[in-house]
Each structure stands twice: as structure tokens, then as C-alpha cells.
């Protein structure tokens, strides 16, 4: 890979660097290496306004395998003036960036549009790759980046980029900093580890846009009245054909509502009897800043019995199978879910060619 957040360089210079890297690799491994390596770049986080990316792609598309870029849509993890009052205000700002509808909806959209336009304009076959993203830069924010709330921006970012023709997403980091997936002190998974595992397991490359009819259910009238207006009806649903099980459709459902359960009544006009059998992975936590995560009500913990040489760890991320059409898809407040429909379900047949 060429580059790591280089700034103030011209596209001709960057393109020359890519070609020089190609020569270095071929010198080291031999000219017959051929398809055994791919070149990625330029891995920039910011670039000059104008045609830089489009021209860079045009200059390198014959040798470049993937166009990589970085994004930290939440901004800085901490402020330079981190007094107690500023710290508290900035922490709330990050929470808003992750969970408030008016903030979440526009998060990073300008950069995404620009990178996709650069890719399309050059009419290239390049892979689009998120080369690095960890939400908040400068190592993440302790108490947010390593908590359940982090999964919301992370999952939405992966889903939005998949809708915008991206093939890969590299999370910053596996271990290290506060945005790590594995806690560097305890070596146990942080909540977003499970989000990554399930997304990789269930969401394939074929992306669909679906129309969802849903309603909100609150446990009390008081809670419904206390629900901020901007959250009312704020759920997001993404649909992919399943990764390892051909012919199955999987939904990712994010419920940003603090008080109301999201209940899906129809998907693309299909009633509940068309939405079974299905497997549900409902992910919840005691609160948004919890390190504890529940899958279908079961706390996910790591002990020796969870890991084997054959299956690795957490092979038991098992769903709840639903066969009764009277059981509608329900996602609790401040929770997310993956719902995978069986091949024989009507919706999988329609979208993914299930049998």
C-alpha cells in the first residue's frame, strides 16, 4: 500500500509513487509475481478541493487495484483544552454525533460522495476501500469508543459504504488505543468486536434498498411523551444478500430511539407471513456506555470453553430462530439487530434467488 495520510502533494507525484512501489515489489519478488500482489493507495484522509482524486485515479488505474482513503467522521476524540467542562461538553458532542438523527444522517456523506464520484468519473474497475476508520481520531474516546454506543456509527458506516460501492472496510484498530476491538489490558472483546463479527458473517456483497413499514411501541404513555421528536421513527434498515448462505437475505436494523421498540410490519410490501422462517440476532446492552453486550438476552462473555483450535472464539454467536409469523421483528430501544431470512422465505426468493 502506498501512502498514509500524505498531504500537500500533487496527483502526478502520488501516481509516480504508486508506479515506483510497483517496481520495488517486482524487483524484490520477481517480475513473474504477476497477480500475486495488489497495489493500494493513496490512503489519504484529506485532499484538496477539485479534481485531485479523479486525476489520480485516471493516472494510476492501469496498475492500481484499490483506491483507499481514511475517514474519522466523529472528529477529534479529545480537545486540546480538556478541562472538566470542555471534556463533558465534548463527550456529549460525540454522543450526539453517534446517536442524534440530524447528526448521524450527514456523518461523512460529503467525503463519500466525493470518493464515489472520483471512482465513477474515471470509469475504472478499482476496488473502493475504506483504508482506516475508527470513528474519533487520536486513539478514540475512552468510555465511548470502547462501549456499546460505538457499534452504531460503525455499523452504519460499513452499511453506507457498501451501498456506495465499497468492497472493504479496515477498522482502526484491532488492538491499541480506545477504538480497539480487543481491550489491550484485559484482551477481551469490546462491544464493536461483536458488531464486526456479525457484519462479516452475515452481510454479503449484494446490496438492496428496501422499503420498511414499522411502528414504535413504548412501555408506557409517559415514555412515549418523553421521546424527543427528532428520534420518533428514527430507525435505519440495510439489506444484503447473505455472505456464506446463498439465496438468503439479511437485514441490519439500527434503532436509535431511546424509549421505543421498533416493530417491523412490512418489508417491501410483504406481510409477516412472508418473513419466516428467519434467524434473529438482537444485540442489546444495559446502557449505551456499557461494555456488557447481550445477544438475544444472553450475555457474551469470554472463557476457555468459548475458544477451540477449530472454531476460534465465540463460535456460539447463535441466532434465535423464528417460524411463527405472528412474532413480528422487534428491536428494543437503543439496540441493533441482524435478521437473516431462510432461503424458502418469500422475501429471500424475491431478493436473493432463494429456493
Automatic annotation (TrEMBL):
Organism: Entomoneis paludosa
GO molecular function annotations of the record: beta-glucuronidase activity
Name of the protein: Uncharacterized protein
SUPFAM superfamilies reported in the protein's UniProt record: (Trans)glycosidases
Family the entry assigns: Belongs to the glycosyl hydrolase 79 family.
Domain of life: Eukaryota
GO-annotated cellular components: membrane
Annotated TM spans: none
